[in-house]
Design brief:
The protein has 11 helices and 2 strands; from the N terminus they run ααααββααααααα. It is mostly helical. A hairpin with a 2-residue loop joins strand 1 and strand 2. It starts with a helix and ends in a 12-residue tail after the last helix.
């Protein structure tokens, strides 16, 4: 099969669109990792809860997915806040293996709890604009992905402004850089941890909401996206929010472009290949700064 420049440009555009969703999910993980130094294996499953929240709001109340974004965020933020307060807070100073085991157990509880409650069925969010295609000359892409891209940009800008222009954002960054000094300055570190975890999974839930407009919803959907989020966070730099955003776009483009040359079922191998190459060449990632912006 001959790959034309138009095919390549189309793949890049679609890579940017899906990469922006990867970025959003990964930024939430980077925020948690950057502030708390904890590995949250349940991150993708909080994203799944955001997708299910959107589905049920549409199914039961007829609420458009874009309008359900604040509700999805608030619901999962609240769950994250309580999870940090009653579970994660108890293991913050435990050995690393205990932290990993605890968040993995949380993953299983959320995932299979959702399966028991909602059933193992695949669901889809169908709106009036589902299936609509946007055409720019020879380039085309689904309208839902275009809307999701614009929404992800808006959320990214809002997060940037929050972290750089508000007291709480500044306090979160201070805690990420030196928690002892932040505590001496009167910052409530425990509260910052709760807010960081809530914000991190809440942002992932927004990613789930946007993803639900063009991706099937099912209880185990978070597994793949959690894995991709970890790859992106390591690729961009541990705890670097800016790095996570850029790296998500890079991974998305790499996957879509590589699908032109290799079987599409193998495109995810490219992400893992880039991940391994980054670890070997620059273990700290592209940007490597905590809450780097």
């Amino acid at each position: 099969m001959t790959v034309t420049p138009i095919d390549l440009l189309g793949a890049v555009i679609n890579g940017v669109l899906i990469g922006s969703i990867y970025s959003l999910i990964a930024m939430g993980l980077a925020l948690i990792w950057g502030v708390m130094d904890i590995i949250n294996f349940a991150h993708g499953d909080f994203m799944m809860l955001g997708a299910f929240t959107t589905y049920w709001l549409l199914a039961l109340a007829g609420l458009d997915p874009m309008l359900s974004i604040p509700i999805s965020f608030i619901v999962v933020f609240g769950l994250g806040f309580l999870t940090q307060k009653f579970i994660i807070e108890k293991i913050l100073h435990a050995p690393l293996v205990s932290q990993i085991t605890a968040t993995f157990a949380l993953l299983l509880i959320i995932r299979y709890g959702a399966e028991a409650f909602f059933g193992p069925f695949t669901r889809r969010v169908v709106t009036s604009y589902t299936g609509e295609i946007v055409h720019f000359g020879p380039i085309s892409f689904p309208l839902t992905r275009g809307i999701a891209f614009i929404a992800s940009i808006a959320v990214t800008i809002a997060l940037y402004l929050f972290l750089t222009r508000t007291y709480i954002g500044t306090a979160l960054r201070a805690v990420s850089q030196n928690r002892e000094a932040a505590q001496l300055l009167g910052i409530d570190v425990k509260m910052m941890y709760r807010l960081a975890f809530g914000l991190g999974v809440g942002i992932a839930a927004i990613g789930g909401t946007l993803l639900s407009t063009f991706y099937p919803i099912y209880p185990e959907m978070g597994a793949f996206f959690c894995l991709i989020a970890f790859i992106i966070v390591v690729f961009g730099g541990f705890g670097s929010v800016f790095g996570a955003y850029i790296s998500g776009i890079i991974i998305g483009v790499a996957e879509c472009v590589s699908a032109l040359f290799i079987p599409p079922t193998l495109k995810d191998v490219v992400a893992f290949g880039l991940f391994i190459a980054m670890i070997l060449i620059k273990p700290t990632g592209l940007f490597g700064a905590k809450l780097g912006l």
